[in-house]
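Protocol step 4 of 5: obtain the predicted structure for the target chain.
Materials: sequence only (see below). No template structures provided, no constraints applied. The aim of this step is simply to have a reference model before the mutagenesis design in step 5. Sequence pasted as it appears in the construct record:
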Amino acid sequence: MVQDIASNVDVEQFKKDLLNWFIEEQRDLPWRKDQDPYKVWVSEIMLQQTKVDTVIPYFNRFIEQFPTIEALSEAEEEKVLKAWEGLGYYSRARNLHTAVKEVHETYHGKVPNTPEEISKLRGVGPYTAGAILSIAYGVPEPAVDGNVMRVLSRILSIWEDIAKPKTRKTFEEAVRVLISHENPSYFNQALMELGALICTPTSPSCLLCPVREHCHAFHEGTVTELPVKTKTKKQKTLQLAAVVLTDDNGRTLIHKRADKGLLANLWEFPNIEIVQTIKSEREQLEEALLENYQAKVKVGEMITRIEHVFSHLVWNINVYSGKLLDLQEETDDIKRVNSEEIKPFPFPVSHQKMIKFMPEMIVKEEN
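Step 4 output (C-alpha cells):
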C-alpha cells in the first residue's frame, strides 16, 4: 500500500496544494484560536458524530464554564452533564471528565504528548489521539475520521469497506505516507476541512477541489461510488410512556437514570417501555410507579407524543399528565422539584421537551 501511494501520487505537490488551500480557506472556529491541547481535546470529543455549527456554542459555553483542565477535573459530574445537555452521546462527556481528572492527577495538568500515554486516557481512541498530537503538539500522527476516509478513498482509489474497523489501518498507513512533517497540524485539519466543505458525501464540489489533479476517482469517474460503505443495521423502535406528575404543592417527580448504559446519570420524568397486554398504558404507568418508586399516582390524559432518534434506536414516547398522590420518600435519585429547582438538572433532549408541560411552565406560557 505504501509503495502504491508513493508511486501513484506526487506526494510533495499534493501536500503543497492541500496546505495552501487550507491556509487561505480554513473556517474561523473557536478551537483554532490557539493550539491549547485541552481546547483541542474538548472540541474533538464534541465533534464526534456532531456537526460543527451545533458544536460551536456548546464549545464556547463549556470552555467559559471550565476554562482549564483543573476547573473541569474539580467539577461535579452533574454540572458537566448539564453543560453537555443537548449534545447527546453523553458517555463522551463522562469519559472526558474521567480522563481530565487523570491528566490533572497523573500528568500535573498537562495533556500527554506521546501516542503511548495519550491513548491510555478514557475515551481517547486512535483518531482523537492523532488529532490532539498533530494539531496541538505538531506530532505527525494520523487522525483518521469519516471525512478523512472519504477524501482519501477518492484521491487514492481505495475500495475497502470503511464500515469495517480493520480498514482504518489502511487509511492510517496512507496518512503516514502523505502527512506533512513540517506542519502536521494544518495537514490533518486540511484533510478534515476538505471532507467537510468540498469532498462531501453526496454532490462533492470537485471543480472547487484544490487537489483535484491528484484525485484518481475524479479522473476515473468513480467519485459517487466511493467510499465503499456497507449499510448499518436497521434501528430498533421502542414504544414508551412517560408521565409529568404533580403533587398538591405543584412540584413534579423526576428521577435519575442508572450510572451505566444509555443516557447514564441523566434525569428524566418517570417512564416505562409499553408491553402488549390487556392493561392500558395508564395502568402500566401507575403500577410501575408504585413498584419502582413506592409512589401512588393517578395518570391522566395524554398531552403529547415525542419521537427521539438515536443512532441505533428510536423512542416513540406517549406523554401523560398525572397527579402524585403519595411518595414514600425522596432519595438522591428520586426528587420532587418546581420549575426553578429543575433548572440545574441535566435532562436528555426527549425529556427537555416534557419540562414545558409542568403546570408552572404552562401558566408562565399562558401569561
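Step 4 remarks: The longest strand covers residues 295-309. The chain has two domains: 2-225, 236-366.
Proceed to step 5.
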